[in-house]
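Per your request, structure below.
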């Protein structure tokens, strides 16, 4: 996910280079731009042991292979991270830590190094170190601090706050952050969960793993090339924005979420460890929507839905030429079934972006006044005995040829496709960590990404000095959460 040239004046493509088929983890900027290098070059999806300690449960009660949520895990998220066991079970604050040491090999070496301070190939790194404050906002202490009457309200407010040190860019920054209020009730004898949220990454509030904020690959290298294309909703705004919204789940079946996002001021972004230089700036508010249906089909849960975002934007924060207009339409579906020792989760997502470059074309940043871009991911995740896992994904990215946006492509094409194959071993998934800090976990992963096409180049020499297979990547990682 490294070292591709950036066209910083372009909102959708220059600010986000998607990892192969990924949700929130695009390429890290070799120049050290934190919003990409530090925020988006590692997985956004999190399995947080502080949640397990709060619930006095094992990780597998909310997850299959973490961070894939099961039905109870989705309920926990919908209720605002606030469900809890008796506070006397654990007095620990809602704090957790994650560490990801890794190794990256690419089929062809990267001239000049995969990133500043790293070699051309075969690089070891601490991909990231994250500290979480996640669970009830006041942990198990609301009643004792504010009294039981106030605690009734305060214990309905939950938080997911992540601060990350990126071992590639060697910088601290804020990461995925969300504050929620949630409650339950009934309407015509049907259960209702409802809530409101404030967060900094569109779709991170979603309870399914088929949307970008928590989509597969859940982790990936910050030291390997990725295709030079992406959509605004798929990581293009992460940690640059603040959004608010409200949601409801009716009868455990119908889910509706309506919200809006706006870009955070440049000085505040800098103070949070995010470099706003050249980013896409939302003009006003960008509405966000999500609608989904979840029901039992056979022995499993089937979800089907749509989501999207519409934004008027200033390219590279430059307001001199007016605004671009970007509209993202997403479709997703997920089927999850547990039978005996086997857990299977199948996911499909498709995002289409309509791009009107009124400002970017006038500034000479695009070759076309309008473009389209779309991305397809089909993923199957299998876990045996909560311990041995396999994930396979096919991804396809394509859209309009534009030599202004895709200047590094020999044809100006974003066409890229391939597969991601991953083996996982979770030796402590059914148990937990030591008694003094319970519910710790670790996942050892071996991931291989194979490209059939990469920014228009085929998987063989194309006469232009490029070969898609040069970007094939072997990535080994230990995902340690405690």
């Amino acid at each position: 996910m490294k070292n591709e040239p950036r066209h910083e004046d372009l909102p959708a493509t220059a600010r986000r280079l998607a990892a192969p088929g990924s949700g929130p983890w695009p390429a890290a900027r070799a120049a050290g731009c934190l919003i990409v290098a530090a925020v988006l070059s590692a997985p956004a999806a999190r399995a947080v042991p502080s949640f397990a300690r709060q619930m006095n449960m094992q990780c597998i009660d909310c997850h299959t292979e973490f961070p894939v949520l099961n039905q109870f895990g989705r309920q926990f998220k919908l209720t605002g991270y606030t469900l809890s066991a008796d506070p006397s079970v654990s007095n620990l604050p809602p704090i957790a830590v994650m560490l990801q040491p890794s190794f990256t090999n690419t089929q062809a070496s990267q001239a000049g190094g995969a990133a500043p301070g790293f070699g051309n190939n075969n690089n070891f790194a601490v991909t990231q170190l994250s500290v979480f404050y996640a669970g009830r906002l006041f942990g198990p202490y609301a009643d004792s601090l504010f009294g039981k009457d106030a605690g009734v309200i305060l214990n309905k407010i939950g938080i997911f706050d992540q601060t990350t040190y990126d071992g590639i860019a060697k910088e601290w920054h804020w990461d995925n952050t969300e504050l929620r209020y949630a409650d339950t009730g009934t309407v015509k004898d049907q259960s209702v969960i409802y809530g409101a949220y404030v967060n900094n990454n569109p779709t991170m509030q979603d309870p399914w793993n088929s949307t970008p904020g928590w989509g597969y690959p859940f982790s990936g290298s910050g030291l390997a090339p990725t295709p030079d294309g992406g959509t605004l909703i798929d990581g293009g705004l992460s940690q640059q924005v603040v959004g608010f919204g409200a949601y409801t789940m009716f009868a455990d079946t119908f889910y509706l979420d309506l919200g809006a996002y706006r870009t955070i001021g440049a000085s505040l972004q800098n103070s949070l460890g995010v470099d706003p230089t050249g980013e896409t700036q939302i003009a006003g508010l960008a509405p966000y929507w999500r609608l989904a249906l979840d029901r039992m089909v056979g022995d499993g849960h089937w979800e089907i839905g749509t989501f999207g975002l519409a934004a008027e934007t200033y390219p590279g924060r430059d307001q001199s030429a007016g605004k671009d207009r970007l509209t993202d339409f997403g479709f997703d579906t997920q089927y999850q079934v547990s039978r005996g020792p086997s857990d299977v989760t199948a996911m499909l997502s498709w995002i289409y972006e309509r791009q009107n470059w009124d400002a970017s074309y006038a500034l000479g940043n695009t070759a076309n006044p309008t473009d389209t871009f779309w991305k397809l991911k089909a993923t199957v995740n299998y876990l045996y005995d909560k311990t041995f896992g396999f994930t396979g994904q096919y991804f396809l990215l394509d859209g309009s040829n534009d030599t202004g946006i895709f200047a590094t492509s020999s044809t100006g094409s974003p066409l890229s496709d391939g597969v991601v194959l991953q083996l996982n071993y979770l030796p402590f998934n059914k148990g937990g960590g030591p008694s003094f800090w319970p519910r710790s976990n670790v996942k050892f992963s071996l991931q291989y990404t194979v490209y059939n096409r990469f920014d228009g180049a085929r998987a063989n020499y194309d006469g232009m000095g490029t070969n898609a297979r040069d970007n094939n990547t072997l990535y080994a990682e230990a995902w340690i959460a405690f």
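Residues 34-481 form a domain with the Porin fold (CATH 2.40.160.10).

Regards,
D.
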